[in-house]
Specification:
The chain has helices at residues 2-12, 24-33, 36-43, 47-59. By secondary structure, it is mostly helical.
Length: 70
C-alpha cells in the first residue's frame, strides 16, 4: 500500500523533481524537505523509512556523522 501511495503522490504533486546542484549535507537536507517522489527515486525508500533506518544505524550500528553529511 505504501508503494502505491508513493507512486500516486509522485504524479499528484506537481513540484519539479530534479533541480539541485547541491552535494553532501545540503543535498540531503533538500531531498528530505522536497518532493516525496524524488526522495523515493533517489533513495529507494520513503522519508519515514529512511529516518527510522538512520536512527537504528546510529543506535545499533555505530553510524557516525561524516565530514560531508551529519
Amino acid at each position: 500500500a505504501g508503494a502505491v501511495a508513493t507512486h500516486v503522490l509522485s504524479y499528484a504533486d506537481r513540484r519539479p523533481m530534479h533541480t539541485s546542484i547541491l552535494t553532501g549535507r545540503l543535498w540531503l537536507d533538500e531531498l528530505l524537505a522536497g518532493h516525496p517522489g524524488r526522495f523515493y527515486r533517489s533513495m529507494g525508500m520513503n522519508k519515514a523509512t529512511f529516518r527510522k533506518l538512520l536512527c537504528k544505524m546510529k543506535l545499533i550500528g555505530g553510524l557516525l556523522d561524516s565530514k560531508h553529511v551529519s
